[in-house]
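Handout, section B. The chain below has 278 residues.
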Amino acid sequence: MQSNQELGFFATDVSLEGKSAIVTGSSRGIGRAIAIELARQGTDVLVNYNRNREAAEEVQSEIESLGRKAAILQADVSDLAQHQRLLDAALDAFGQVDILVNNAGITRIADILQESEADFDTIINTNLKAPHFLTQRVANYMIRAGVRGCIIYTLSVSDTLASDNRAAYCISKAGLEMDMTVYAGRLAEEGIKVNGIEVGVTDTDLAHVRIPDYEEAAKKGYIFMFRPGQPQDIANAAIAAIKIYDTGRLIPAAGGTMTRLLNLRVMTELESNRSKGA
């Protein structure tokens, strides 16, 4: 019978104690919450940031206050030449990488009929091309080193729900879901788990402005949303994605947004639709 070490993240009782992780885009928002929750679960974390070093240092301090090691590295993940730096920094700090969380992402707002080629390329390169090739690099390292690791993708309800003023973002997330699935199939034989998190509207810098639209849609019954998500909700889902006995799957973290309902409450206000007594 295989040992827990041989089973890695496919073991029945997955422990994150003593593991190490790279979390891209982890100086703020969802990435920050995931990095800190990983530390709370016993994991050392490489905090990746692009611009805000001060925010990354705050995350580093919080991780260290939980008794775990933390390192920070500035790297623009859309530049594939910087990927080896990410991996090397984690290996230098921790000696091994057990977990990769592909979290970094951007969006741009533009009518699909006016969207520029430059913006489209920037979003696709950051949200889709970067995690594809970072996963390739980290997975090859894991295979060479004999690490039975885990790779997590931060995905979105926008991989299914189209927004015509965020076309490139939706396309990138749809492609990223397939990327996750393809890698899951390829890496299962290597003992490496690959899962995703289906994120709904969440109270972060990136998505805060969208919350009123979702709340209005929920009020009218076009969608169901219990409440806007918080970064900690997504972090909890990330831990579930790491520990679940499955691969190539999405852990929902959308507050019900993807629940199949069509509850047109305003229709009940129409006199013609009200029940008539005998």
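Note. Helices lie at 4-7, 29-40, 53-65, 83-94, 117-145, 167-187, 211-220, 231-243. Compare this with the example in section A.
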